[in-house]
Amino acid sequence: MRAPPAGLPPVIQVDRAAAKPLYRQLYDGYREAIVEGRLRAGDRLPSTRILAAELDISRIPVLNAFEQLLAEGYFESRTGSGTFVARSLPDAFFKPLSKTALEVPRGRSPRRAVSRRAEALLRRKLQIWYTGRGAFAVGHPPVDSFPVHIWSRLVARRAAAADTSLLRSHGPMGLPALREAVADYLRAARAVRCEAEQVMIVGGSQQALDLCARALLDPGSAVWVEEPGYFGSQRALELAGARLVPVAVDEEGLDVDAGVARCRRARAAFVTPSHQFPLGVTMSASRRLRLLDWASRTGSWIVEDDYDSEYRYENLPIASLQGLDRDSRVVYIGTFTKSLFTGMRLGYIVLPRDLIERFMEVRRVMDSFSHIFDQAVLADFLREGHFARHMRRMRMLCGDRRRALVEAVGRELPPSFSVLGDRAGTYLCLALPPGLRDREIAERAAARNLWVAPLSECSLGKARRQGLLLGYGSTTAAETAEAVARLRGVLDSV
Prior knowledge:
The chain has about 500 residues and is of the alpha/beta class. The chain has helices spanning about 20-35, 50-55, 60-70, 115-125, 150-160, 175-190, 205-215, 230-240, 255-260, 285-300, 355-365, 370-385, 385-410, 440-445, 475-494, and strands spanning about 75-80, 80-85, 200, 220-225, 245-250, 255, 270, 300-305, 330-335, 345-350, 420, 425-430, 455, 465-470. α1 crosses α3 (about 60-70). The chain is globular, with a radius of gyration of 30 Å.
């Protein structure tokens, strides 16, 4: 083979042992040389034959790289002359990039505009304690006892069936078989008044909250929210541009009279009546009827987030608020994330009939529908009785873990630390005595792999209650005593 002309060094180096293909190494190398200004507009490039000889590689990867760079406009070919760096690229493209040029521009360039709603969310972004995986993590069911073998068998059976209908869209409402199974379950277990056509399958309760905010509210609409309340619904409402009206929560749940006094004609109320987040109280019957009467009189909506209603230990699960509704003012939300596993991003909304078409159109714009194969497997899990059996076991298991946590708190901590909301759910609230700040404690605890969440993060007002949310769903009874002892060490250091 004829040797390449002297003085023609390769622009880049290639590594035959690298996992990245040779053509990609060449493509990346030339593109980087152009972006960094080492190659300028009009510079002539070596022929593919010469470059292959210089690099001692096959000509095929060189041809592939050059073809891609030609297709993307970095190179241009001139008949009878060869290949050149494209002259159509702007001059500013070839200026060498300094380290500071790669940083976010400040001062001299126009402001990098984003929505005010996104900025507001950033200022109130969730901290590390809601993403940890150690002891006391909130919102995690006991996945260590999930029947993986049954779930795997159902997945394998569905995959082996080669059902091509699962490869197609089933519309924004979801898979009919799952909607039927959910409706049957809700009528029997939660006293929800619904038929399958009212059930919409969504990607978990957070998407359900976002969908409700988009479909029911306009920017500036006044909305009652519990104070303190669920940060997920607060942020979904903020993103929709709603005007949040915090309404106090006491031992009977949302104070409806206080809400009427603050904003009688709010467009909607977002509530967690069966197990209020984060205080864990249950809305009393009188408050439920008062709330339904308010919604009926004012034409307002009630969004009932029934996020972990299956976990109740000293009595049967509380019947839904929706089941008492005679005027179709309640939109009911539930999720399988808290009852099965956090990776199961499937939930449901039960809609009043006159809202179905409106929610469907909004859903089409958002993501059209949830993953069909997962819906099919979940439908089998419900229909064959696995879900009911699993929840019976989980209530017993979480009851034992709750008991272990309450006993360890009573043993390790002084009486000034009171326990709230321990009759249901997979977490409890530890109220702090005066003088202690929950954010500081949560940050110190995280350094010791204790993922307690500060109660104050759930408040919108300035007078924020101080407390810690301690999850026990994913913390075994055997781990609890040692974890509470470590938490006491953190409290002693504060």
